[in-house]
Amino acid sequence: MTSEETISDERSRGASPAGARDLPIPPPGTMGPPVEYESLRRECPVARVRTLVGATAWYLTRYQDVGSVLGDPRFVRPNVDDWPPPEGNPVSGCHRLVMMMELEGPGHRALRRSLADAFSPAAMREREPRVRALAEGLLDEFERHSGPADLLGGFVEPFPLLVMCDLVGIPYAQQDYFVPLVDSALTAMVDVVEGRRVSAPLYEYVDGLIARKRREPGDDVLSDLLRRQDAGELSADDVTSFGLTMLLAGFRTTTMFLANSVVTLLTSPEHLAQLRGNPGLLADAVEELLRFLPVLNGVVVLQATEEISLLDQTIRAGDAVLPTIPAANRDGSVFPDADTLDFARTRNPHLTFGRGRHFCLGAHLARLTLRVALAALLTRFPDLRLTVAPHELPWEDESPAKSPLALPVRW
Protein backbone atom coordinates (compact mmCIF):
# COMPACT_ATOMS: atom_id res chain seq x y z
CA MET A 1 0.00 0.00 0.00
CA THR A 2 1.37 3.43 -0.92
CA SER A 3 1.69 6.30 1.58
CA GLU A 4 -1.18 8.09 -0.19
CA GLU A 5 -3.42 5.01 0.03
CA THR A 6 -2.52 4.57 3.69
CA ILE A 7 -3.43 8.16 4.45
CA SER A 8 -6.75 7.77 2.64
CA ASP A 9 -7.46 4.56 4.57
CA GLU A 10 -6.67 6.25 7.89
CA ARG A 11 -8.92 9.18 7.04
CA SER A 12 -11.81 6.89 6.14
CA ARG A 13 -11.79 5.43 9.66
CA GLY A 14 -12.56 8.85 11.09
CA ALA A 15 -12.61 7.63 14.69
CA SER A 16 -11.64 10.00 17.47
CA PRO A 17 -9.63 8.14 20.11
CA ALA A 18 -11.03 8.13 23.59
CA GLY A 19 -9.38 10.46 26.03
CA ALA A 20 -8.44 13.20 23.58
CA ARG A 21 -8.11 16.57 25.30
CA ASP A 22 -9.55 19.85 24.10
CA LEU A 23 -7.05 21.97 22.19
CA PRO A 24 -5.39 24.27 24.73
CA ILE A 25 -6.21 27.90 23.95
CA PRO A 26 -5.32 31.11 25.78
CA PRO A 27 -7.71 32.37 28.45
CA PRO A 28 -10.46 34.61 27.01
CA GLY A 29 -9.45 38.22 26.59
CA THR A 30 -5.71 37.52 26.53
CA MET A 31 -2.96 36.63 24.08
CA GLY A 32 -1.96 33.74 26.35
CA PRO A 33 -0.09 31.47 26.43
CA PRO A 34 -2.43 28.59 27.34
CA VAL A 35 -1.91 27.56 30.94
CA GLU A 36 -1.50 23.92 29.88
CA TYR A 37 1.88 24.39 28.16
CA GLU A 38 4.02 23.74 31.23
CA SER A 39 2.15 20.69 32.50
CA LEU A 40 1.96 19.14 29.02
CA ARG A 41 5.69 19.57 28.44
CA ARG A 42 6.38 17.93 31.79
CA GLU A 43 3.74 15.22 31.98
CA CYS A 44 2.42 14.54 28.48
CA PRO A 45 4.57 16.16 25.77
CA VAL A 46 2.83 14.15 23.02
CA ALA A 47 -0.89 14.50 23.67
CA ARG A 48 -3.98 13.69 21.60
CA VAL A 49 -6.22 16.76 21.28
CA ARG A 50 -9.54 17.72 19.70
CA THR A 51 -9.07 20.74 17.44
CA LEU A 52 -11.55 23.59 17.11
CA VAL A 53 -12.95 22.02 13.92
CA GLY A 54 -13.65 18.73 15.70
CA ALA A 55 -10.79 16.68 14.24
CA THR A 56 -8.13 15.04 16.40
CA ALA A 57 -4.37 15.55 16.22
CA TRP A 58 -1.18 14.93 18.17
CA TYR A 59 -0.14 18.04 20.11
CA LEU A 60 3.62 18.46 20.68
CA THR A 61 4.93 20.89 23.29
CA ARG A 62 8.66 20.19 23.87
CA TYR A 63 11.30 22.09 21.89
CA GLN A 64 13.16 18.93 20.92
CA ASP A 65 10.06 17.18 19.55
CA VAL A 66 8.65 20.24 17.78
CA GLY A 67 11.98 20.97 16.08
CA SER A 68 12.44 17.32 15.12
CA VAL A 69 9.01 17.02 13.52
CA LEU A 70 9.32 20.33 11.67
CA GLY A 71 12.51 19.09 10.05
CA ASP A 72 11.40 15.50 9.41
CA PRO A 73 10.49 14.80 5.73
CA ARG A 74 8.09 12.05 6.86
CA PHE A 75 5.74 14.80 8.05
CA VAL A 76 4.14 16.88 5.31
CA ARG A 77 1.78 19.84 5.33
CA PRO A 78 -1.70 18.62 4.28
CA ASN A 79 -3.58 20.71 1.79
CA VAL A 80 -6.07 23.09 3.41
CA ASP A 81 -8.81 21.51 1.28
CA ASP A 82 -7.95 17.98 2.45
CA TRP A 83 -7.54 18.23 6.22
CA PRO A 84 -9.59 17.75 8.20
CA PRO A 85 -11.45 15.49 5.72
CA PRO A 86 -14.74 17.11 4.70
CA GLU A 87 -17.87 15.57 6.14
CA GLY A 88 -20.52 14.60 3.63
CA ASN A 89 -20.31 16.14 0.18
CA PRO A 90 -17.36 18.39 -0.71
CA VAL A 91 -18.08 22.10 -1.02
CA SER A 92 -19.40 22.89 -4.50
CA GLY A 93 -16.91 24.72 -6.70
CA CYS A 94 -14.04 24.16 -4.25
CA HIS A 95 -10.54 24.74 -5.62
CA ARG A 96 -7.42 23.23 -4.16
CA LEU A 97 -5.57 26.01 -2.34
CA VAL A 98 -2.07 24.65 -2.86
CA MET A 99 0.45 26.85 -1.04
CA MET A 100 4.22 26.58 -0.94
CA MET A 101 4.09 24.83 2.42
CA GLU A 102 2.32 21.88 0.75
CA LEU A 103 4.77 21.59 -2.14
CA GLU A 104 7.47 18.91 -2.04
CA GLY A 105 10.22 17.63 -4.29
CA PRO A 106 12.08 19.25 -7.22
CA GLY A 107 9.31 21.77 -8.00
CA HIS A 108 9.36 23.10 -4.44
CA ARG A 109 13.16 23.38 -4.48
CA ALA A 110 13.11 25.19 -7.83
CA LEU A 111 10.54 27.71 -6.58
CA ARG A 112 12.50 28.42 -3.41
CA ARG A 113 15.70 28.87 -5.43
CA SER A 114 13.89 31.35 -7.67
CA LEU A 115 12.80 33.36 -4.63
CA ALA A 116 15.97 33.11 -2.56
CA ASP A 117 17.55 36.38 -3.72
CA ALA A 118 14.36 38.46 -3.43
CA PHE A 119 13.82 37.41 0.21
CA SER A 120 17.46 37.29 1.32
CA PRO A 121 18.98 39.36 4.14
CA ALA A 122 20.91 41.39 1.55
CA ALA A 123 17.71 42.17 -0.35
CA MET A 124 16.00 43.25 2.85
CA ARG A 125 18.88 45.58 3.75
CA GLU A 126 18.61 47.16 0.32
CA ARG A 127 14.85 47.47 0.68
CA GLU A 128 14.88 48.95 4.19
CA PRO A 129 14.74 52.65 3.09
CA ARG A 130 11.66 51.86 1.02
CA VAL A 131 10.00 50.05 3.94
CA ARG A 132 10.80 52.98 6.25
CA ALA A 133 9.20 55.36 3.78
CA LEU A 134 6.06 53.22 3.67
CA ALA A 135 5.87 53.28 7.47
CA GLU A 136 6.30 57.04 7.66
CA GLY A 137 3.64 57.59 5.01
CA LEU A 138 1.07 55.55 6.93
CA LEU A 139 1.98 57.26 10.21
CA ASP A 140 1.69 60.70 8.58
CA GLU A 141 -1.91 59.82 7.77
CA PHE A 142 -2.54 58.29 11.19
CA GLU A 143 -1.13 61.31 13.01
CA ARG A 144 -3.67 63.59 11.35
CA HIS A 145 -6.24 62.32 13.86
CA SER A 146 -6.75 65.00 16.46
CA GLY A 147 -7.74 62.62 19.25
CA PRO A 148 -7.55 58.95 20.30
CA ALA A 149 -7.48 56.52 17.39
CA ASP A 150 -7.27 52.80 16.63
CA LEU A 151 -3.62 52.00 15.95
CA LEU A 152 -4.61 48.55 14.67
CA GLY A 153 -6.68 49.85 11.79
CA GLY A 154 -4.54 52.91 11.22
CA PHE A 155 -1.09 51.29 11.08
CA VAL A 156 -0.62 47.80 12.55
CA GLU A 157 -2.87 46.04 10.03
CA PRO A 158 -2.15 48.03 6.85
CA PHE A 159 1.63 48.27 7.24
CA PRO A 160 2.63 44.56 6.86
CA LEU A 161 0.11 44.25 4.02
CA LEU A 162 1.52 47.31 2.25
CA VAL A 163 5.11 46.06 2.61
CA MET A 164 4.19 42.64 1.21
CA CYS A 165 2.16 44.05 -1.68
CA ASP A 166 4.92 46.48 -2.61
CA LEU A 167 7.51 43.69 -2.82
CA VAL A 168 5.41 41.00 -4.48
CA GLY A 169 3.44 43.13 -6.93
CA ILE A 170 -0.07 42.76 -5.51
CA PRO A 171 -2.18 45.94 -5.90
CA TYR A 172 -2.56 47.33 -2.39
CA ALA A 173 -5.49 49.43 -3.63
CA GLN A 174 -7.49 46.21 -4.14
CA GLN A 175 -7.27 45.21 -0.48
CA ASP A 176 -10.96 45.86 0.11
CA TYR A 177 -11.65 42.98 -2.28
CA PHE A 178 -8.96 40.41 -1.51
CA VAL A 179 -8.43 40.84 2.25
CA PRO A 180 -11.98 39.64 3.11
CA LEU A 181 -11.37 36.61 0.88
CA VAL A 182 -8.08 35.92 2.63
CA ASP A 183 -9.62 36.26 6.08
CA SER A 184 -12.48 33.96 5.12
CA ALA A 185 -10.03 31.35 3.83
CA LEU A 186 -8.05 31.58 7.06
CA THR A 187 -11.19 30.80 9.05
CA ALA A 188 -10.68 27.19 7.97
CA MET A 189 -9.03 26.66 11.38
CA VAL A 190 -12.43 27.19 13.01
CA ASP A 191 -14.93 27.00 10.13
CA VAL A 192 -13.84 24.49 7.50
CA VAL A 193 -16.87 24.92 5.25
CA GLU A 194 -16.49 28.69 4.97
CA GLY A 195 -12.73 28.40 4.49
CA ARG A 196 -13.22 26.00 1.59
CA ARG A 197 -16.12 27.91 0.06
CA VAL A 198 -14.04 31.02 -0.49
CA SER A 199 -11.23 29.16 -2.25
CA ALA A 200 -12.79 29.59 -5.71
CA PRO A 201 -12.94 33.43 -5.74
CA LEU A 202 -9.49 33.62 -4.17
CA TYR A 203 -8.10 31.42 -6.93
CA GLU A 204 -9.86 33.58 -9.51
CA TYR A 205 -8.28 36.69 -8.01
CA VAL A 206 -4.77 35.22 -8.19
CA ASP A 207 -5.34 34.00 -11.76
CA GLY A 208 -6.50 37.48 -12.76
CA LEU A 209 -3.54 39.09 -11.02
CA ILE A 210 -1.09 36.84 -12.87
CA ALA A 211 -2.81 37.58 -16.19
CA ARG A 212 -2.44 41.34 -15.55
CA LYS A 213 1.23 40.87 -14.65
CA ARG A 214 1.76 39.13 -17.98
CA ARG A 215 0.28 42.11 -19.81
CA GLU A 216 1.96 44.73 -17.64
CA PRO A 217 5.07 43.34 -15.91
CA GLY A 218 6.77 45.42 -13.24
CA ASP A 219 9.76 45.45 -10.94
CA ASP A 220 8.32 42.96 -8.49
CA VAL A 221 8.60 39.33 -7.47
CA LEU A 222 5.55 38.06 -9.37
CA SER A 223 6.80 39.58 -12.62
CA ASP A 224 10.20 37.96 -12.09
CA LEU A 225 8.59 34.56 -11.49
CA LEU A 226 6.64 34.87 -14.73
CA ARG A 227 9.89 35.56 -16.59
CA ARG A 228 11.35 32.43 -14.99
CA GLN A 229 8.25 30.47 -16.01
CA ASP A 230 8.73 31.58 -19.61
CA ALA A 231 12.35 30.42 -19.38
CA GLY A 232 11.19 26.96 -18.32
CA GLU A 233 12.46 27.21 -14.74
CA LEU A 234 9.00 27.14 -13.13
CA SER A 235 5.51 25.89 -13.92
CA ALA A 236 2.33 27.95 -13.99
CA ASP A 237 1.19 26.11 -10.84
CA ASP A 238 4.39 27.21 -9.08
CA VAL A 239 3.61 30.87 -9.76
CA THR A 240 0.00 30.46 -8.65
CA SER A 241 1.13 28.69 -5.48
CA PHE A 242 3.43 31.59 -4.62
CA GLY A 243 0.66 34.15 -5.16
CA LEU A 244 -1.72 32.23 -2.92
CA THR A 245 0.98 31.76 -0.29
CA MET A 246 1.75 35.47 -0.07
CA LEU A 247 -1.92 36.33 0.28
CA LEU A 248 -2.69 33.67 2.87
CA ALA A 249 0.58 33.68 4.82
CA GLY A 250 2.50 36.76 3.72
CA PHE A 251 1.15 39.38 6.09
CA ARG A 252 -1.46 38.18 8.60
CA THR A 253 0.95 36.54 11.05
CA THR A 254 3.24 39.59 10.88
CA THR A 255 0.22 41.78 11.65
CA MET A 256 -0.60 39.62 14.66
CA PHE A 257 2.98 39.64 15.96
CA LEU A 258 3.13 43.42 15.54
CA ALA A 259 -0.20 43.92 17.34
CA ASN A 260 0.86 41.69 20.22
CA SER A 261 4.27 43.39 20.36
CA VAL A 262 2.60 46.79 20.73
CA VAL A 263 0.36 45.48 23.52
CA THR A 264 3.35 43.92 25.26
CA LEU A 265 5.43 47.12 25.13
CA LEU A 266 2.60 49.46 26.09
CA THR A 267 1.79 47.33 29.12
CA SER A 268 5.42 46.89 30.19
CA PRO A 269 6.96 50.30 30.98
CA GLU A 270 10.27 48.65 31.85
CA HIS A 271 10.70 47.07 28.41
CA LEU A 272 9.42 50.16 26.64
CA ALA A 273 11.93 52.35 28.49
CA GLN A 274 14.68 49.85 27.70
CA LEU A 275 14.08 50.23 23.95
CA ARG A 276 13.71 53.99 24.11
CA GLY A 277 17.01 54.25 25.97
CA ASN A 278 18.86 51.83 23.71
CA PRO A 279 17.53 51.78 20.12
CA GLY A 280 20.40 49.49 19.14
CA LEU A 281 18.69 46.74 21.12
CA LEU A 282 15.72 46.64 18.75
CA ALA A 283 16.88 43.76 16.53
CA ASP A 284 17.44 41.52 19.58
CA ALA A 285 14.14 42.70 21.04
CA VAL A 286 12.32 41.64 17.87
CA GLU A 287 13.85 38.16 18.11
CA GLU A 288 12.79 37.90 21.74
CA LEU A 289 9.27 39.08 20.95
CA LEU A 290 9.07 36.47 18.18
CA ARG A 291 10.04 33.83 20.74
CA PHE A 292 7.89 35.11 23.58
CA LEU A 293 4.58 35.92 21.90
CA PRO A 294 2.29 32.87 21.57
CA VAL A 295 0.66 33.66 18.22
CA LEU A 296 0.81 30.30 16.43
CA ASN A 297 -0.86 28.11 19.08
CA GLY A 298 -1.68 24.84 17.32
CA VAL A 299 -2.01 26.49 13.89
CA VAL A 300 0.77 24.58 12.10
CA VAL A 301 -0.63 21.21 10.95
CA LEU A 302 1.54 18.38 9.64
CA GLN A 303 0.54 14.90 8.57
CA ALA A 304 2.50 11.66 8.96
CA THR A 305 3.14 9.77 5.72
CA GLU A 306 4.11 6.57 7.55
CA GLU A 307 3.83 5.06 11.01
CA ILE A 308 6.24 6.80 13.40
CA SER A 309 7.03 6.25 17.07
CA LEU A 310 7.49 9.38 19.15
CA LEU A 311 8.04 9.19 22.92
CA ASP A 312 6.37 5.76 23.12
CA GLN A 313 3.34 7.02 21.18
CA THR A 314 2.49 5.51 17.80
CA ILE A 315 1.63 8.14 15.22
CA ARG A 316 -0.12 6.38 12.35
CA ALA A 317 0.16 7.26 8.69
CA GLY A 318 -2.43 9.96 8.04
CA ASP A 319 -2.47 11.24 11.62
CA ALA A 320 -2.29 15.00 12.00
CA VAL A 321 0.39 16.49 14.24
CA LEU A 322 0.44 19.99 15.73
CA PRO A 323 4.06 20.99 16.46
CA THR A 324 3.17 23.78 18.86
CA ILE A 325 5.84 26.39 18.23
CA PRO A 326 4.88 28.80 21.06
CA ALA A 327 5.10 25.95 23.58
CA ALA A 328 8.51 24.96 22.23
CA ASN A 329 9.62 28.58 22.44
CA ARG A 330 8.76 28.57 26.17
CA ASP A 331 10.68 25.35 26.91
CA GLY A 332 12.87 26.09 29.93
CA SER A 333 15.38 23.39 28.99
CA VAL A 334 16.39 25.56 26.02
CA PHE A 335 15.47 29.07 27.16
CA PRO A 336 16.40 29.93 30.78
CA ASP A 337 13.57 31.85 32.47
CA ALA A 338 11.49 31.04 29.40
CA ASP A 339 8.40 32.85 30.63
CA THR A 340 10.38 36.07 31.09
CA LEU A 341 10.66 38.60 28.27
CA ASP A 342 14.39 39.32 28.13
CA PHE A 343 15.70 41.66 25.42
CA ALA A 344 19.26 40.85 26.51
CA ARG A 345 18.85 37.11 25.87
CA THR A 346 22.13 36.01 24.31
CA ARG A 347 21.02 32.67 22.83
CA ASN A 348 17.65 32.61 21.12
CA PRO A 349 17.17 29.65 18.73
CA HIS A 350 13.38 30.10 18.58
CA LEU A 351 11.32 28.07 16.14
CA THR A 352 8.86 30.79 15.14
CA PHE A 353 9.84 30.57 11.47
CA GLY A 354 9.96 26.78 11.45
CA ARG A 355 12.85 24.51 10.54
CA GLY A 356 14.02 22.46 7.59
CA ARG A 357 12.92 22.56 3.98
CA HIS A 358 9.84 24.65 4.77
CA PHE A 359 11.59 27.26 6.90
CA CYS A 360 9.55 30.43 6.41
CA LEU A 361 10.53 32.07 3.13
CA GLY A 362 9.50 35.48 4.45
CA ALA A 363 11.41 35.32 7.75
CA HIS A 364 13.74 38.20 6.88
CA LEU A 365 10.87 40.25 5.47
CA ALA A 366 8.90 39.73 8.69
CA ARG A 367 11.90 40.73 10.82
CA LEU A 368 12.41 43.89 8.76
CA THR A 369 8.71 44.79 8.93
CA LEU A 370 8.54 44.35 12.70
CA ARG A 371 11.77 46.23 13.35
CA VAL A 372 10.88 49.19 11.13
CA ALA A 373 7.33 49.36 12.52
CA LEU A 374 8.42 49.40 16.16
CA ALA A 375 11.24 51.88 15.50
CA ALA A 376 8.84 54.22 13.70
CA LEU A 377 6.29 54.06 16.52
CA LEU A 378 8.90 54.63 19.24
CA THR A 379 10.37 57.60 17.39
CA ARG A 380 7.16 59.24 16.21
CA PHE A 381 5.14 58.81 19.42
CA PRO A 382 7.36 59.01 22.52
CA ASP A 383 4.29 59.09 24.79
CA LEU A 384 2.17 56.51 22.96
CA ARG A 385 -0.23 54.80 25.39
CA LEU A 386 -3.43 52.73 25.47
CA THR A 387 -6.66 54.56 26.23
CA VAL A 388 -8.21 51.51 27.91
CA ALA A 389 -7.01 49.11 30.57
CA PRO A 390 -5.28 46.03 29.09
CA HIS A 391 -8.11 43.74 30.22
CA GLU A 392 -10.57 45.91 28.25
CA LEU A 393 -8.90 45.25 24.88
CA PRO A 394 -11.11 43.15 22.56
CA TRP A 395 -9.74 39.77 21.44
CA GLU A 396 -10.88 37.09 19.02
CA ASP A 397 -11.41 34.29 21.52
CA GLU A 398 -12.60 31.56 19.14
CA SER A 399 -9.30 31.09 17.31
CA PRO A 400 -6.03 29.50 18.47
CA ALA A 401 -4.21 32.42 16.81
CA LYS A 402 -4.76 35.34 19.15
CA SER A 403 -4.26 39.07 18.66
CA PRO A 404 -6.32 42.14 19.63
CA LEU A 405 -9.22 43.32 17.47
CA ALA A 406 -8.49 46.99 18.22
CA LEU A 407 -5.70 49.07 19.75
CA PRO A 408 -7.21 52.35 21.02
CA VAL A 409 -4.31 54.72 21.73
CA ARG A 410 -3.46 58.35 22.29
CA TRP A 411 -0.12 60.13 22.03
UniProtKB/TrEMBL annotation:
Which keywords has UniProt assigned to this entry?
Heme, Iron, Metal-binding, Monooxygenase, Oxidoreductase
High-level lineage = Bacteria, Bacillati, Actinomycetota, Actinomycetes, Pseudonocardiales
Region Disordered: what ranges?
1-32
Any one Gene Ontology MF annotation carried by this entry is: heme binding
- Protein's name according to its UniProt entry: Cytochrome P450 RapN
* Family that this chain belongs to: Belongs to the cytochrome P450 family.
Q: Which domain of life is it from?
A: Bacteria
* Keyword Iron included in the entry's annotation: yes
